[in-house]
Design goal:
Length: about 375
């Protein structure tokens, strides 16, 4: 049996304690025992989301949470801003179009972050905009959005600010209440160290008002139903019982560690990985002014086929990293995650495997240079 070390930005590794929790016999969801679990999960999520807002749990992957945000906040014909600087920003646009919402698409060069001024310009020119959709960490490029700055711009308008924080939650700072973010979407299988299957949506009072009014078709993802059920600490449909129970294991661990220490830890992992890439003579894909700590996107030399690097690392050596997505990045980059329980030795293992494969592919560099640079950062 071969081990498979996941260094991918979702799904991520699941620590043994959480695996054990996932292996427990199932309990019924309409019981006080499950209610206790659900209550604890919501409180734990409120800590991670840094909010007092309601948080609803949906049995779906992250995109289900994004779809719930669009269909519940907006009606056909409504206008919204979507920020597209990568694959996941594009998903907001596609979702809006699917529901007849007219997106004003703010295209951002891949590898760069949106400038809050650009958002402001559109909001100033069109007072009918009801929502602004952004991405905390654009996982396809490795860029972080300055959510606080965008929130300042959106705050004074009638629009709600919706953040896809699926890869960023618990990894990089997102102060939902302090910054005034109306809706935050997250999921179980990235920083929270769980299998895919749960999406989370936090909702401010301003957003709740829109949810009551929306004329979009909705049934399973109707957040009015989720709200009503949550008032009785319940869910409208069968929840992903096992994942909710395991979520508490994860949330307890996160609370014990503290968000601040977690953020600092991922920053160190990111700094080491960046140093390693440079020591190997490779460059970082994102602009360094907006580079994310949730993952590192490394641009490979043009003589190297990135798809082959990913395949060889995974199939021959059992180390999974992600490749590039879309026309722009397919075969050109690899992406290494710094989230969940990934630690220093996972990063060093991943880097040494990358070196091995690069050497096999005849890329010229000094063997050990990347690992050494990362070690130096860790030993500082
Ligand atoms: C992973 C991810 C998603 C959601 O993907 P699913 O496959 O639906 O879970 C959305 N946005 C970002 C930024 C992501 O990293």
């Amino acid at each position: 049996m071969k081990k498979n070390l996941l260094l991918t930005p979702g799904p991520t590794q699941i620590p043994p304690e959480i695996c054990a929790a996932l292996g427990r016999p199932i309990i019924h969801h309409r019981t006080p025992q499950f209610q206790e679990n659900l209550k604890e999960a919501v409180e734990g999520l409120q800590y991670v989301f840094q909010t007092h807002n309601d948080i609803y749990l949906l049995a779906s992957s992250g995109t289900g949470g994004m779809e719930a945000a669009v269909s519940n906040l907006l009606s056909p014909g409504d206008k919204a801003i979507t920020v597209e600087g990568g694959k996941f920003g594009e998903r907001w646009t596609e979702l809006c179009r699917s529901y007849g919402v007219e997106p004003h698409v703010l295209k951002v060069e891949w590898g760069k972050a949106v400038s809050p001024k650009q958002v402001q310009k559109i909001l100033d020119a069109d007072k009918d905009i009801e929502a602004v959709f952004i991405t905390l960490c654009e996982t396809s490029t490795g860029v972080t959005t300055d959510v606080e700055a965008v929130a300042k711009v959106v705050g004074g308008t009638k629009a709600v600010l919706v953040v896809d924080a699926i890869s960023g939650i618990g990894v990089t700072d997102l102060q939902t209440d302090n910054w005034g973010v109306d809706v935050v979407v997250a999921a179980s299988h990235k920083g929270l160290m769980l299998p895919p299957g749960l999406a989370f949506v936090s909702v401010s009072k301003k957003a709740l008002a829109l949810i009551e009014q929306s004329k979009s078709p909705r049934y399973y993802f109707d957040l009015r139903k989720a709200k009503k059920a949550m008032e009785k600490i319940d869910t409208p449909f069968t929840p992903a019982i096992g994942i909710v129970i395991a979520l508490n294991e994860s949330l307890r661990h996160i609370k014990q560690t503290g968000l601040e220490s977690l953020f600092a830890r991922y920053e160190r992992l990111a700094m080491a990985t960046r140093a390693a890439a440079k020591a190997l003579g490779l460059s970082l894909y994102p602009d360094e002014s907006c580079i994310s700590n949730a993952l590192t996107t490394i641009r490979l030399s043009s003589s190297i086929d990135g798809e082959k690097v990913v395949k060889r690392m995974r199939d021959t050596y059992g180390i999974s990293v992600a490749g590039g997505q879309g026309e722009e990045l397919k075969g050109k980059v690899i992406r290494i995650a710094h989230m969940g329980c990934i630690d220093e030795y996972d990063i060093l293992t991943g880097l040494s495997c990358l070196e091995k494969v690069l050497q096999e592919m005849k890329y010229p560099f000094t063997l050990g240079a990347g690992v050494c640079a990362a070690q130096r950062v860790f030993n500082e």
